[in-house]
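Two entries, shown back to back:
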Amino acid sequence: MKKNTMASPRGETESEQLAGILRSLVAGTMLMSLVFVIVSLTAFNELILRSVVICAVVSIVSSFVLGLIDEGRVGAAGWILFVLTWAAISIGAYISGGVDAPIMVGYVVVILAASLLFGFLAGALFAFLSIVFGGFLIYAEWTQLLPDSFEYSPAAKLLIYSFFFLVVALFQRMSVNLTRRAFARADESETRYRYFLENISTVTYIEDVTILANMIYVSPQVEKMLGYTQEEFLANPLLWLDIVVPEDREAVKQESIRTSKTGETFTMEYRLFSKDMKLVWVRDEARLIRNAKGDPEYWLGVWADITQAKQAEVEQDRIVESLTRRTVQLQTASEVSRAATSILELGTLLSTVVELIRSHFDYYYVGIFLADENNERAVLRAATGEMGQVLLKSQHSLPIGNSSMIGWCIANNEARIVLDVGEDAVRFKNPLLPLTRSELALPLRARGDVIGAMSIQSTLPSAFSEGDITALQTMADQVGNAIETARLFDDRSRLIKELETKNAELERFSYTVSHDLKSPLVTIRGFVGYLREDARKGDMERFDSDLARVVNATDKMQNLLGDLLQLSRIGRVINPMEDVDFDTIVTETLHLALNPLMMEEIKVEVQEDMPKIRCDRVRVVEVLQNLVTNAVKFMGEQREPVIQIGSYGLDEKTGFPILFVKDNGMGIDPQYHERVFGLFNRLSPEGEGTGIGLAIVKRIVEVHGGRIWLSSEGNNKGSTFFFTLPAAEN
């Protein structure tokens, strides 16, 4: 609470009042001294000398005192007046017979005057001096130190007493006037103070010093501020606490209790409910008032209505927040635009964009979904936070349609916003994101087509303003175009890589074909001459042998050309893609690759519950058949041959299931792990085949978007061929 001060009402100052009293006292004393002289001259000859002396002394002292008053030395003038008057009375008593002298009554006048003008202590001082001097007079009289006493007639004594009685009456009149004027000034001051309190804009109140702080007075302005009348507050001393907003009440109560115990000034801003339930902000400042003994009397305080100031603060904060948010939007848009133009790798672009938007806007979660090639499902391609990584690893996707906000957004090419997630039936409630309170789905467009959507989620309700939506949609459009650019770049990079690979293969192919086809042709040409010689000699046995060699060479050349033709068709001749259980492909492959006798000699272990994949079924059967056939062919001298087929988690890069074919056969030295997948690369020259089989396997796997690699510790340690294929969409 704030201590209120008010200027003194207009009128005389204390110094001016004292000067006026002294002037009146001097004037009255001089007048009565003059009257005393006149009366003495006319009726009391024995008092003429004394009256003249008194009048002369009074005149001299009065003149000196008035001079001091005119100089502004009012206090000094008063003390000099009383001291000299007391001294004159004391001298008069000494020369007039001691304590019996009538002039001793003058001490009473000095004591009263000093008490009236300078307070109790001044009167007590002169009383003490008078008593002490009276004792001295008694001693002097006893020791005969006093001069001869002067005998006054009764009439003279009456005159002297009358003089001092009139002076006392003068002081009494002055005291009464002074008291009346003090009361008048007090009434005027109280009236002005009350008028001031009841006409200022703030509300003044008084509370008792109990812990509860009961209100015992409140100024009438409270009705204008809060709608409650002064009488309502006084009828319910705790009404002020009842109308404090519940969120602020406990803090106000605790601060009130604390300051009541410590006596510190109470200062606090809080909210009150007016009678019509409007919110009123007040600044409450109260100070503990103590009495003369230092004991607490009451709390005096004021309520200042600061509602407009608070509203201005809120508006200012809103403007600052709006400008800050706009700055963040522009900064984020700039960084997203920079990323969109500088990052061409799609995965890096998407992860950079979602993290930029999440961090700059302080959102809970941001994710980007892209439509699949059939435009049936929206697949999550980038997401923020730990839960986002979990969703990415699980290959999270949503159907395009009306079953989710993302699906609806892509299907309708419109943004969808939910200010409170509990009220939207279309929204997909993700258990991994339980803190979401509001969500925004924005379409990603490229060349007029919707290619996906961006999901933005916040832990706050109504977190998205119109400005946010506009800015975020602009960013989403930039991202959509950047995605298309990145895709084109990826396609271009892939085509360049494929072209480089094919050129390399073509070079190897040209060399290998010229080498491997030349061998049977040389054989055929050589043995044609032998056939002619055999026919001329009629050696039919030799003829049949040479003819068999020619036929064998043509078969070898035919197999080689067939494998090359098959290799060239991979990627160009595509069968329909379908979702197939890998178990089914394994079963089909084993029936093709192994006859019943092999099934008895070789132990085949097939893992249960293998994943469902999306593939060209015919081609994948070729892959598995080639790998199983190689495992049987290169089993070596293994007495207990074992072939294992199964799955091994997910690929970290693509999320595809990892599949494998493992054997305990001859194994492959690590230095040949890459070479075995090349054209016409046979590790054993004595082995059958053209050396194209694993090249075909690799081509089929890569056409599906997967990869294949080999793991083997070396000779007679077995081999494991790992490969990845895309998971089924459903």
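entry 2 starts here
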Amino acid sequence: MSSQSVGPIKLNLAIPSMAEIMAAVERKKQEQIEKLLNPPVAPVSVPPVMLNHAHCHPDEDSLQDMGDLMDEYEDELIARWEAEGGFQHIPIHHDSTDWKEVVTPPIQNLPVARIKLSDEQSSATSAMINGDSFCLIGKAGTGKTTTVKEGIWMMESGHIIAPMHDTEGHKYLIPGSLGIVCVAFTNRAINNISKSFDLGTTRINFMTIHKLLEYIREDYSYEDPETSELRSSSRFVPSRTELRKLPRGLKRIYIEESSMVSIELHQKLKAACHSGTQFVYLGDLQQLPPPYGEGILGYKLNELPCIELTKIYRQAAENPIIALAWAISRGEKLGKEELQARYGHYKGLNDPIRITFFDKKIAADMAAIVMGKFFCQLIDRKVFDPIADIILVPFNGGKKNKKGEGQLGSDELNRAIAQHISMRDGKETHEIIAGFQKHYYAVGDKVLYNKKEGIITAINKNGKYIGKAPLPPSVDLHRDGTYHAKTSAGASISPEQMSAEDVDKFLLAIMDNPDDDVSNQASHIVHVKLIDEQMEDGSHETEIATRGEYANLLLAYAITIHKAQGSEWRKVFLLLHNSHFTVNREMLYTSVTRASQQLFIMCEPDSFSKGVSRQRIPGVSIQEKILWFKNKIDELRRKIAAATAAKKTLKILDEEEEEGE
């Protein structure tokens, strides 16, 4: 069944009576509900695996529309909520014509798929061909990418989708390519899906959402709320918007790793599309959910039809990494004995999976030292490539349990590995002061900036910085801010001083840019070249110069499992310690499925058994998990209603206070 989202409400303000307006709204609401409850039959036969969910639930645009409506007709809507006992969504379609279900006519002589598809995959390709928007969900190895690939091939072979001869000045869409684009939040996710396509014959586009929307850097001014002074800054904004839409020939958008796409970014993407554009949201409900309110997939699961792929391909089933992921998702017993029975015969460095158990309990601080040295040895032995491979841990570190015990985190491992590499290669470590924080980086460091991997190519002093002088750079400066013993014993270390030339540059910078917030500048500018990624404006290099930007810069030899979502590495090292007291099933599944070729696990004997028993999204079936998202949406709706009621109360109190004065 075709599903249609709800646009902004337009009311004819020429109607003299508010009562007449609300009556018209009520009539329109009842008409639409009647159509939703009694939809026409779709032309393509869809097997029972197509799950139709409550289409009256609002999407993220509707939630925004609620806020706009509440601002304009607050009194009437508050009274309505009180009378009807809760929040009521009023879906009014934005077109001036009557709302109608779009029925796609049956397609004749449709090419058959090149491979045998399951019933679920056939349902998905039929929906793709009909132009229906839907969610395509499946675990690792169920063929989500294969399904999309075959659906596109069928449309291309059957001449169902026309090429875009006119890309209307778009910088990245290829003229003559099909009116289809596969997008994702990160380049790494795009690279993963594009590898499955024959790019020499398939004429479709692959790019990040930011690239599709042609983000550009924009300078702007704002008023400082504390000083009322006018400040200047820059930001990335989309050049494709509701006022300058994407080409009309772009008819279908398929979103890979859709749980990683924020609601805000999705709203911008949707606003730039023409009416009738098909959206397909690909995702895996077994992975970690994004922080609620940020990911679009949860909303779409309750708004659109959902097709779940449940059959695992033979090739994937024979992969021990995929087999472990499925065992985790099913909640199977995975104690030390079970894991050794399944994977104990893998002992070589070239085997696809290898599991090592800690022999005895070891404190988190000592474990950090031991594991740091261990990974440095793996680097020297060329078992661990610090650029191409990754270490995954549940947390950054720093958190403590009720007993006051700390956690083994990525921060400690990163400092140990970065120090080892910089000393081995003779690279100077720089102390960088950004606000109240001190950071320690060297050229060649692997970093994560705004969720994108990169390499530091240069570190220069910032001519706009004024403040406490940092320590001088040195090959003997450790990542904790202390100097190596041989340096501290043989030399007197003092902070790096500003030369007369530096002072002159700083004064000139202030004269040239009097509105710049100098206090926000860091002591150094770090230049980063991204790995298989690009910035919002399409560039592959960026500069970090302010304390706000440094807050988003991290060493990235080891990262948290949350930050690994949407990415994939050839070799993954998963580290689970007894201090990781909140590991759950989704966390284990996500970490295991990040490995494309090899997975090395170092854990406690009970790490997996404890983790599998905990779930972030309760349930095993898709229906149970979607119910969890539905309850979250209902909770958000209640919060909106409560916040609006509170706003109404405060407004009344303010009016009474003004009258009293």
